[in-house]
Amino acid sequence: MPLLSKRKNGTLILNRREFKAQIRKILGTSPGNIGVYEMALIHRSASIKLPDGSKVNNERLEFLGDSILNSILSDFLFRKYHNASEGFMTKMRSKIVNRELINLLAVSIGLDKILVSNIPPSSTTRKLYGNALEAFIGALFIDKGYVKTRKIFIEKILMKHIDLEKLISTDNDYKSLVFEWTQKRKLNLSFINNEDYDFKTKKSVFSSTLLIEKTEYGRGSGASKKEAEQEASCQAWNKINKN
After folding, report:
1. pLDDT of residue 51
2. Whose CB among 133, 136, 139, 202 lies 3.0–4.6 Å from 106's, allowing a Cys bridge?
3. Are residues 163 and 179 in the same domain?
4. Which residue segment(s) compose the domain that 178 sits in?
5. What secondary structure letter does DSSP report for 154?
6. How many CB atoms lie within 10 A of CB 124?
7. What is the pLDDT at residue 10?
8. Strands 215-222 and 189-198: what pairing?
9. Alpha carbons 106 and 31: distance in angstroms, whole number
10. Across the 243 residues of the chain, what is the mean pLDDT of every consecutive 10-residue run?
11. pLDDT tens, 97-115?
12. How much is the pLDDT for 71?
């Protein structure tokens, strides 16, 4: 039986038995409150409308999971690297929560296969998977508590799919990489940045377009100008290396 099927009205529905088996596979243990994991994997585009008019999706859990993830990583890095400076730990945490890496982690554990979304797959939908991972961590925290969430994330997700020693030597400052590449070739590099306000989340959303010689090479968005430019630079760097 497929994990996702369609209702008559075209909306997606999860097969609960298969879904629970997939969650158990990710966690390495049985989930307690399966409903909270289901909520974590409902994207806003597939929101379920309740009789009172409210909508159910993963945005609140994503907000929670983002905070829990940063706390777990700070705790983990502090314990693992006893003599490391604050700067080193901050940089390592930033590398791990980089959107590209978070998206990769989400796909590595199979969240892309169980995320309910009405957005057609494309290169820009990868960020939905990373957001879903944050919501998943929020759900895990509600279901299992902080200690078990930390253990499961570190052992079953982070250490299983990421080589930390390799990550230490990896330069993820894509903006600097693109800047150096254009400087060597005497090419003009510029960013077009915009700031919008999301009235639903009550937060600013930044977008950035990277241009090389007035040709678009990448686009990005994020909670800050820096994050948006890094995402645009990441796309540009990938494009440069494909050519």
Report:
1. 81
2. 133
3. no
4. 174-242
5. I
6. 11
7. 47
8. unpaired
9. 18
10. 47 70 93 92 85 86 96 96 86 82 92 86 71 96 97 96 86 83 94 88 87 94 86 84 66
11. 877 789 889 999 999 988 9
12. 97
| CATH number of the domain residue 184 falls in | 3.30.160.20
CATH number of residue 145's parent domain: 1.10.1520.10
Asked if 56 and 50 touch (Cβ cutoff 8 Å), the reply is yes
Does the annotation count 155 as an active-site position? Answer: no
For residue 76, give both structure tokens. Answer: 């983990």
Tokens for 140, please give them.
């895990």
**pLDDT score of 124:** 54
Span 20-36, pLDDT tens digits = 899 999 999 999 999 99
Is 134 an annotated catalytic residue?
yes
Task: For residues 205 and 221, state if they share a domain.
Answer: yes
Distance, in Å, from the CA atom of 132 to the CA atom of 61, rounded to the nearest integer, reads 9
Do 148 and 220 reside in the same domain of the chain?
A: no
Strand 12-14, strand 48-49: pairing? unpaired
Q: Which CA distances in Å does 237 have to 105, 175, 176, 187?
A: 20, 8, 10, 14
Domain stop point among 108, 136, 168 = 168
- 86/182 same-domain check: no
Q: Which of 59, 66, 143, 229 is catalytic?
A: 66
Residues 151 and 182 in one domain: no
Confidence at residue 7, expressed as pLDDT on a 0 to 100 scale? 47
Active-site position among 38, 59, 62, 134 = 134
pLDDT at 170: 76
User: Distance between CA atoms of 174 and 26, rounded to whole angstroms?
Assistant: 31
